[in-house]
User: What shape does this take?
Amino acid sequence: MIDLSKQGFRLEPPEANISYQDTMDIHSHRILILDFGSQYTQLIARRIREARVYCEIHPFNIPIDKIKGFNPKGIVLSGGPSSVYDRGAPVVPREVFSLGVPILGICYGMQITARLLGGRVARSKKREYGGANLYIDDRSDLFYGLRKDTLRVWMSHSDRVERIPPGFSVIARSENSVVASMRDGERRIYGVQFHPEVVHTEKGKRILKNFLFRICRCRPVWTMRSFIDTTVREIRERVGDAGVVCGISGGVDSAVTAVLVHRAVGNRLTCIFVDNGVLREGETKKVERTLKKNFHMRIRCVDASARFFRKLKGVTDPEKKRKIIGREFIRVFEEEASRIKGVGFLAQGTLYPDVIESVSFKGPSATIKSHHNVGGLLKRMRLRLVEPLRELFKDEVRALGRELGMPEEIIERHPFPGPGLAIRIIGEVTEKRCKILRMADQIVLDEIKKAGLYKELWQAFAVLLPVRTVGVMGDERTYENTVAVRAVESVDGMTADWVRLPYSVLERISSRIINEVEGVNRVVYDISSKPPSTIEWE
Ligand code: XMP
Assistant: This one.
């Protein structure tokens, strides 16, 4: 590991620094990211948070008063798909540059900086996309501590800065002397044409850290330990003496929410676990065991499976299945919650990406997940929301879970859809078909875990097809169900690739399913990527 203190860092690297936490508010040293719509904006935020500095993403056009009110230690202008010459190209008010706050413009963010401050941006005929060489001219601040003058960086742009604005100097170039980074040291305004936030940029993290710690003089106080202290205090203040209910599903978000709220209000929290009949094998017991035994939480498990199966009878349309399960879940939850006295709040595991999505300048996303749709419930029961994970990314939720002492089994769990196995049983969902799928699914997971592959995958599961095929077992001819196996790699579920599972693992999965699950005589492996397919089959 490089010793940063020997390289002129005034502050210790985050890992070595605990003492700030007792005295400093975790939000006090924060960075504002103004979003111009880049696919990498969330990555910028994650890199900054990994450096233990709090940051938030806001649309580029938030009012200047809000920017001042945010009181940032620094501002990052993100990349974006526009050209500064497009009609209606997004811009920030010029005033942003005279707040006296350091600014880092990335890609489009640098071009808009150049344009607004009197430089010239030219349209390139050719788009520069992918790896490129960066030749550094000045290593005094943004590129401080880098040993080499040349780095491989990730470019993704078509416009370029042709003339830098007055007061600026060029601190790095790419091929043919194109401006790849510029600086106005006096006003502490910086621009980079490449993307320091992506892993393909060599020393990208270091460059961002230089901006945070050397230029903005941030302190690395955003840690999960201090997050717990602050959030527990905030939950107590918000909730007062009221009771809280929380729906848990076995998923990491709801489990971490529950444990955190429990730490704040103890047994005034009641968790409700609804067994909708389409859960994985042993799910109810697993959740009960972990949260009840390890954390001594109050949990009400409601077996509503019969009720769900009744409603699903004869239904084959996937969207109808989703609606029925979502609606029924809210009903069961509400009935159960209304039996608890003094409840004033509903705790929910909303994460930061959902929050950004709904405030994004592109407009509210059309794909807000159905389980967030609790408006009616809140109104009818006169509940208010507690969403302690609203500021966190998924990897931060996992780190928080670990800090709270939760077992890896829950923290590393794959995502599981709200409508559960119902959207993996193609055609009608019956108890019998559910039982077949549950057994097959358990074998898939079991073998993947045994092969040590579980953590590397985004999801792995079985799907029950409405297809029967002929087989032979012993001397007898069979005519039974087909199971499809799916295993995918993904970063966020938006795109995915099928996993090249070793043949030996596939072989074990197949032979175990056919031998152990009555009613299945054929197993197939799904080799489709997303897009154009989806991860789930329905
Ligand atoms: P698709 O199938 O759209 O899945 O590629 C992307 C991710 O979303 C999950 N998924 C759902 N999650 N309710 C959920 O809570 C749903 O109706 C639903 N449908 C898909 C899927 O498991 C994958 O992780």
Summary: The longest helix spans residues 318-337. Residues 20-215 form a domain with the Rossmann fold fold (CATH 3.40.50.880).
